[in-house]
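Trying the structure run again after the queue cleared.
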Amino acid sequence: MQDDTKFKHVSDSVFLALQVVLTLCGVVIFLVALWGNILVLRMILQRQRASVTRNFLFNLSLTDVLSVITCLPITITQEIWALDFMVNPFSCKFNSFIQCVTVISTAFTHVVISIDRFALVFRPLRWRSVLNLKRGKMLIATVWFMGLAFATPFAVSNVYDDTKGTCVEIWGKEVATAFSYLLLTIQYIIPLLLITCSYLAIVNRVFSHRVPGEGDVCRDKRMARSKRKVSDEPIKETEFQLTTITSNHSFELPFHFSNAIKI
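Done. Tokens:
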């Protein structure tokens, strides 16, 4: 009996320590992500000349800020500490809705940026004539519209249970499971595949590209430099964005994995 009590005490202590560690990690991520994205937003707003790439990066930082503000506090209070003091009829519908909007918008913005990088490296002059500022803004609006569309079922299906004081889903288990798998595919798997393919092609292009023909080595080098001048800036930006996207998907992987297990 004493051994069982001692074991339970140790287990509770370990669990509490784990909660504290996860909370501290969440707070650090919250502060770093919030401050970093605010700096990016400020830097972009201070630039006088607008561009398609800057609009994409602005939208990405904006979705990241909204995602950090709406997702992390709820995850810490409800998932880690199991506190339900923030649960009410409004939060039941709004929390899941806004989380889904920001996560999908962030994922789709990453996809748009990766495709933009791909096109700028392979067809820089032609691509900028196709994707101008107006079409870029329309593409950003489409990203937000798709996020709102996929998040709407949460606002409809989530209701507040007065007797239990918790949120419940009014749709059946089969529908909920199918929709969860659909979101997992749309939010994570498809964007990850598209982004990976785009950046692998970019890396292959950068490191394996050669100017056709043999003969004058100096001439070939001049041709290569002149041909790459247009795409030098996109390549440098690609390195930064690849690091950002890799970090983002690494942080999201445990979240999506845990959701898949719950299904």
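Residues 26 and 121 are 36 Å apart (CA to CA). Worth checking whether this holds up in the mutant runs.
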